[in-house]
Amino acid sequence: MSPLSADGLSNDRTGHRLNPNSATVKDHVASMHLKCGVGNRVAAALLFRGIPVPRESQPV
Questions:
Q1: pLDDT, tens only, 19-55
Q2: In Å, what is the CA distance from 24 to each residue of 28, 30, 33?
Q3: How far apart are alpha carbons 17 and 60 in whole angstroms?
Q4: Are 6 and 30 in contact (CB under 8 A)?
Q5: At what angle do helices 11-18 and 22-36 cross, to 10 degrees?
Q6: pTM of the full structure
Q7: What is the pLDDT of residue 54?
Q8: Per residue, what are the HEC states of 1-60?
Q9: Angle between helices 41-48 and 22-36 (to 10 degrees)
Q10: Other CB atoms within 10 Å distance of the CB of residue 32
Q11: Which pLDDT score, from 0 to 100, does residue 50 have?
Q12: Would you state the torsion angle of the CA atoms of residues 45, 41, 30, 28, taken in this order, to the nearest 10 degrees?
């Protein structure tokens, strides 16, 4: 996970910092969620920081 996402930056802000467009960032974040087995960016940030992810934040 990108530290920028873990810090709560939106796709637009992450894209601005790294220079790809926000659609590219959105695709990468969605791919990361699938690979990590989480359903949203909050759960991904928790996982990145080593905090247990609530069951309701995991995809079905």
A1: 767 788 788 889 988 998 898 888 988 998 999 887 7
A2: 6, 10, 14
A3: 32
A4: no
A5: 110
A6: 0.58
A7: 78
A8: CCHHHHCCCCHHHHHHHHCCCHHHHHHHHHHHHHHHCCCCHHHHHHHHCCCCCCHHHCCC
A9: 60
A10: 16
A11: 92
A12: -50
CA distance 6 to 54: 16
The length of the chain in residues reads 60
Assess contact for 36 and 45: CB atoms under 8 A: no
- With contact defined as beta carbons under 8 Å apart, do 34 and 27 qualify? no
Q: How far apart are the first and last CA of the chain?
A: 21
Distances (CA, A) of 29 to 39, 57: 11, 15
